[in-house]
Each structure stands twice: as C-alpha cells, then as structure tokens.
C-alpha cells in the first residue's frame, strides 16, 4: 500500500504586510520625486488614505451660517495701525484682495468702490460696531479686518524677506430692531500670518514691491478661508 504522505503547499505570505509595503513604497517615491517636506508630507499621506476632504470655515462653524448656500452679501472693512500701514495702501489692498478671494469662491461682496465712497464721505471713520455703514449700505454681514502689525523683512535682517501680519478679524450681522438697522457682533478670530512659512526669500531674488504683493495675496487667501470651506491641502506656501 502506498503510504505516500499528502503534499502540503507552503503557507502564503500575509497579504496586509505586502499591501503596506507597496503603499509605503509609493508614498516614499512620491515624496522623493516631489521634494515634499513638513506639512505637505502629511497632506499627501492623508490624501492617499482619506482623499482630499473640505474643511469647514471658522465662520460657518461659529455662526452656523453658510454664506454661499444662504445667498448672503458681505461688506469688507479694513483698518491698520500707523506702524503697519507705512506705505499708505495696505487697507485698500487688503479690501481689494479679500474681495477677489471671496468672489472667486462664490460669496457675494459689496462693490469696494461703494465702500471707498462711503469712507471718503465719512472721513475714513466708522463706529464700532459699524451701525452707521450698516444703515447706509445694503448688506447682510460686515467683515472688519484689523491689522496691528505688517512687516516684510526677517527679524534682525535687511537682506531676507519674510512677510508677517498680526491683528484680528471681526464680523457683524446686520439686523433690524425698532425700525433701524444694527450691526450685531457674531464672529471674532485672531490673525497671525507668515509668508513664506519655511525659508525666507533673499532680497536679491525679488523687488520689495513684488514680494509685498505676494505677502498681501497670501494674507487675503488666509483671511478668505475664515469664511469659505477649503481643501485640506490648500494654502501651504
């Protein structure tokens, strides 16, 4: 009688470790090719696992108001300390830049020329809360950006650029009481901005005017993300 033992195949290697090795290899290859570091590394890894979800804006989280879906209109004001606005154009640049960011994300914004006209007629001043402009200009919300500091150079250096800004952002909802419009405070956020986040820019690689434009553009993008949802990978400079 043939008592040959039945053949047994060798156990297959576990599948999960193989998948993990492949995923890690793809991730590392992508990082090496793209030269990614810091936040971008985690963003890329997160996208591979979870996709690229949207982050809910702070304004929506706090006020429960979706400016886009509820078809709301906002008016933008900006004020800056004398130290921050040394060139004299910072306030108008921020109003213009933030207006563009919000409009490009489908938020209705009062024409900045209408705001400038109102400010000129009132000596560039408004109340806090801004009840006066709420009664004169049709809008649902008023956004006020206050800039306390705004600089373009790395600390203790005149040869390296790094833009920094600090201040606060307040928003008011226009409501009607006793037949008159009032601006009720509904939102506040501290503002701290730095551009670029990583290495400063040598002065010989950019004119001050060009670098300032980039700083203001980055600042307005950061301000905009307070009011509209954005992708997790957006905004890393």
Keywords:
27% strand; disordered N terminus; two-stranded antiparallel ribbon; Rossmann fold; alpha/beta; globular; 237 residues; 2 domains; six-stranded mixed sheet; 7 helices
Indicate the topology.
Layout: H1 15-34, H2 39-50, E1 54-55, H3 58-63, E2 73-80, H4 90-104, E3 108-109, H5 112-121, H6 131-136, E4 141-153, E5 160-177, E6 180-195, E7 201-202, H7 208-224, E8 230-231
Parallel strand pairs: 2-3, 2-4
Antiparallel strand pairs: 1-8, 4-5, 5-6, 5-7
Helix pairs in contact: 4-7
Task: Summarize it.
The protein is of the alpha/beta class and 237 residues long. It is 36% helix and 27% strand. The model is unreliable at 3-10 and 22-40 (pLDDT under 50).
Report on this structure.
The chain has 237 residues and is of the alpha/beta class. It folds into two domains: 15-50; 54-231, Rossmann fold, CATH 3.40.50. It has seven helices and eight strands. It has helices at 15-34, 39-50, 58-63, 90-104, 112-121, 131-136, 208-224, and strands at residues 54-55, 73-80, 108-109, 141-153, 160-177, 180-195, 201-202, 230-231. The strands form two sheets. Strands 2, 3, 4, 5, 6 and 7 form a six-stranded mixed β-sheet that branches. A two-stranded antiparallel sheet has the order 1-8. β2, α4 (90-104) and β3 (108-109) form a beta-alpha-beta unit. α4 crosses α7. The chain is globular. The chain starts with 14 loop residues before the first helix and ends in a 6-residue tail after the last strand. Residues 3-10 and 22-40 have low confidence and may be disordered.
């Amino acid at each position: 009688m043939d008592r040959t033992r039945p053949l047994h195949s060798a156990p297959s290697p576990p599948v999960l470790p193989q998948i993990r090795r492949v995923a890690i290899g793809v991730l590392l290859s992508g990082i090496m090719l793209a030269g990614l570091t810091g936040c971008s590394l985690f963003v890329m890894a997160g996208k591979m696992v979870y996709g690229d979800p949207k982050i809910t804006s702070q304004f929506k989280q706090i006020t429960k108001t979706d400016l886009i879906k509820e078809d709301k209109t906002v008016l933008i004001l900006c004020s800056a300390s004398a130290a921050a606005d040394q060139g004299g154009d910072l306030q108008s640049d921020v109003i213009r830049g933030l207006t563009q960011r919000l409009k490009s994300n489908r938020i209705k914004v009062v024409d900045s020329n209408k705001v400038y006209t109102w400010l000129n007629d009132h000596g560039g001043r408004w109340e806090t809360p801004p009840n006066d402009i709420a009664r004169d200009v049709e809008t649902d919300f008023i956004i006020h950006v206050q800039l306390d500091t705004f600089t373009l150079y790395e600390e203790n250096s005149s040869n390296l650029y790094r833009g920094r800004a600090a201040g606060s952002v307040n928003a008011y909802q226009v409501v009607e009481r006793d037949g008159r419009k009032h601006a009720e405070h509904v939102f506040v956020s501290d503002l701290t901005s730095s551009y670029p986040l990583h290495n400063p820019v040598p002065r010989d690689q950019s004119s001050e005017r060009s670098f300032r434009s980039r700083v203001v553009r980055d600042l307005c993008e950061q301000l905009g993300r307070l009011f509209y949802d954005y992708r997790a990978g957006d905004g890393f400079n």
